[in-house]
Sequence to fold (731 residues):
Amino acid sequence: MRLQTVITLAAILTCDAKLPTHKSHIQPNELPPNPTQNAQALRLLDVQAKSAKTSRIVNEYKPRHRRDVFDSKSYNESSLIWAHSERLDENGDVVLRWVNSDSSITFRVEARTRGYVGIGFNSARNMRGADLLVAWVDDRNNHAHVLDCHGLTFEDRAVADEVQNVELVSGYQNDTHTTVEFRRMLDTCDIQDFVIGDDTMQVLWALGPDGSDGELPKHVKSGSRPLRLLLPVSKPQTIPLRHWDVRINNLTIPHDMATLFWCKIFKAPDLPMKHHIVGYQPLIDSRPIRDGVPMLEKNSLSPVHHMVLYECAEDPDQHLWKEWANQDGFYGPSRPSEWATCVTPVAAWAIGSKGEFLPENVGIPLGEKTGVSFYMLEVHYDNQALHEVLDNSGIRIHYTPALRAHDAALLGAGVGVSALHVIPPKQKQYRTVGICSPECTNSTMPEEGINIVSVLLHAHGTARKISLKHVRGNNELPRISEENSYDVRYQQSRIVPGGRRFLKGDTLITECTYDSSSRDKPILGGYSASQEMCLSFVLYYPRTELAGCYSMTPVKEFFETFGVREFYALSMTDVENIFLSSGNLENLPPKIEFDIRQHASESEAMQGDDQGVGLMKELIIREPAEFQNKTFLAHLNQMPWSESVLTEQIEKTLYKGMHMTFCKKRDDNWGAPIQIQNYPDYVELVSNEAAEKSCNYKSVLPQNSVTKSANSISSSLISAILAVCTIIVTR
Ligand SMILES: *[C@@H]1O[C@H](CO)[C@@H](O)[C@H](O)[C@H]1NC(C)=O
Ligand SMILES: *[C@@H]1O[C@H](CO)[C@@H](O)[C@H](O)[C@H]1NC(C)=O
Ligand SMILES: *[C@@H]1O[C@H](CO)[C@@H](O)[C@H](O)[C@H]1NC(C)=O
Ligand SMILES: *[C@@H]1O[C@H](CO)[C@@H](O)[C@H](O)[C@H]1NC(C)=O
Fold:
């Protein structure tokens, strides 16, 4: 294939996709509908007896499945070091702190209320079917209380669980705040509780009016935030840290530009020897411009959507690069072609992330080359609100001379970003897949393989699950990482527990599952928040030459899957070349280039890199006759997407069919030739989820929970409250 291709596949992208504006879906009903709430209330009186019974079962169960975690000394307030702390709302009215062990988790909630505070866990952003708990401090006697509840699935109402699995640790209130500490098992084995696991979940909160102790009227404020609670602790760095700020300089984003990619070159700091990059933080500095004048205050609603810092391949012409480093940068599609050599991601930030530090055994080398090295910052602005903004955002890179044990690198993998990545509408669970081929890993990895440390899984707003699969020979090994409750508003890497040895010749598969049931039209792949992606960024050591490893459906097979054989003006090979050159028109035959430029409408041009979406509107079908003279996009939009026979066939053909694989090295050369190959043939692993657990009992309280403290809740009070335990948390 004669392709001086400049695929910008290696781009990461993380975009907080615009949240769908339709109403949230009701999650599948996990709980048996139980209209007899009073019966539940009465049963609660049995809790003590029940937990005595269950704790016997628990003790039998424990040695096999769980490590014992709590020491017997009871906790006092503040005796714990909180590993994590998050504001659940913008104001900081509700602060949640927590620390977990292998089997249990202790929370502290500080809420600006003298009434009740409700905290909930759910896969949806509402209380239907959620695991809820309600805590308050009684104004009369200052006793704290916590009640384990759940949201009904058919009504916005909280009712007490049959079994109380939350243990109060302590609680008090002052003039403004209610502060309560409590703990529970991660998996209580209670169908009315949520399992706190590795997936992202929605943490819900609600504040009751003052004096709402013991009665639970409708909340006065509520909200939700996606979080993963079981993140490893990002330890405060005790090593000497320096920082390097790479940021855009006074860029004005015009009010009529909804999507903008901006790229700027930076010269690495002058370092006499190798250092390690150990973390990064976002520097968000966007000021709205009103009447031509930038506002003084920074905008909390910055259009910065994601930022990626890439290392550039060494270039003999340092003079040119130094000049670029002194300039302000370029609009993405019009950047100099030399910049296409900046393919190795070093830091990838997306909206929702506070930045991160790498695990302590690895660092990304900085300043190791003799001479100067250059980096490219790519900033994606998602300015759907169409404001005029002055931007100085960027990334703060933390680095240290105290070298870590291993030189790490990031590898991008998944589905190549292009309009050929189609998600049909009206699908509850539609899967797509990107392959990193065995030929690629065979030719770029060392004999002993690599060690995978952590993974950032990335897609946009319709993605619900992402998993990174590992195939060796004809067998699938356990998933390297997986997220079963993806939320684009929350982007953090996932540590691979114990790491994973990945050998040359192994296959890496990124699989995404989308829920497009609320959409009427197909979603095409692309960088914009309204388009989709399916990517994983894999942090590994030792570093290799491999920087990006992707696949996409070959063009001919793609169009055939949608019933199209031939277009006017362009042959399938021409179309393929356009996709492979990904917007860079220089390498195309002049006639085609002219056609494309002619056809590209102005609004499309404003959208920047469109990865072929514009082309889909220009391709006019010649064969077969039944679709003749329609554009491909019109054809796609008119397909009968509600026919599950059709969509299942399309999903299967694109998933299990042919894949065109790309293997990009750090120096911008191919690590293995572009190939068209079959989906690998292997024995699939039985779902990780299914094998996981065997809960056959109802309640697990943390050990020593039976000890009563002055604060623990009395059963008679609970039943009194339960009569009114109906918080209406309508959202
Ligand atoms: C009340 O408690 C909250 C949360 O613990 C704390 O932040 C605040 O400073 C306290 N206020 C006073 C007046 O002590
Ligand atoms: C950016 O613009 C402001 C005025 O709008 C100016 O004061 C500042 O010096 C500029 N910064 C740089 C680095 O050019
Ligand atoms: C891997 O590469 C070696 C040469 O380095 C070659 O002999 C072998 O056949 C390759 N294996 C695969 C699966 O491509
Ligand atoms: C498509 O357009 C061509 C030329 O304009 C015309 O000859 C042909 O009949 C049209 N086909 C259909 C199905 O309308």
User: Anything to note?
Assistant: The chain has three domains: 2-231+706-727, 242-405, 555-677. The longest helix spans residues 47-65. The two ends are 55 Å apart (CA to CA).
